[in-house]
Amino acid sequence: MIVKTLDETLNTPDHVTGDAFESRRILLARDGLGYSFHDTLVKAGSTQNLEYKNHIEANYCIEGTGEVEEVATGRTWPLRPGTMYVLDRNDAHIVRAETDLRLVCIFTPALSGGETHDADGSYETA
């Protein structure tokens, strides 16, 4: 059994911050599960252009409001607590945060922990 707390992740190398986000990476590749689990904050007023070419990502909004846009079609969906979106085809997407957003995110394959976004908004594989 693995038991972890958010407090154990904060202010460690697994707590990655950027201009528009904080990724608190609670489960990572070293945990041996094949996926990683993140508690992510997206800052109000920010826009992120992302495309995870090497990962499938599922996101579940638990706080805040915003929208996600599928770049290929221009279609947008509102984000609010209780909304999930899954990038099941490595979809290029844009996340816009109206208020601070808090998302629970799962990546497969698992992130190792130190990844940062490439210029195109993706992560390299571990």
TrEMBL record:
GO MF annotation, one: ectoine synthase activity
Top-level taxon in the UniProt lineage: Bacteria
SUPFAM superfamilies named among the record's database cross-references: RmlC-like cupins (SSF51182)
EC number: 4.2.1.108
Pathway listed: Amine and polyamine biosynthesis; ectoine biosynthesis; L-ectoine from L-aspartate 4-semialdehyde: step 3/3
PANTHER family xref list: L-ECTOINE SYNTHASE, PTHR39289
Known role: Catalyzes the circularization of gamma-N-acetyl-alpha,gamma-diaminobutyric acid (ADABA) to ectoine (1,4,5,6-tetrahydro-2-methyl-4-pyrimidine carboxylic acid), which is an excellent osmoprotectant.
Protein's name in the database: L-ectoine synthase
Taxonomic source organism: Roseovarius spongiae
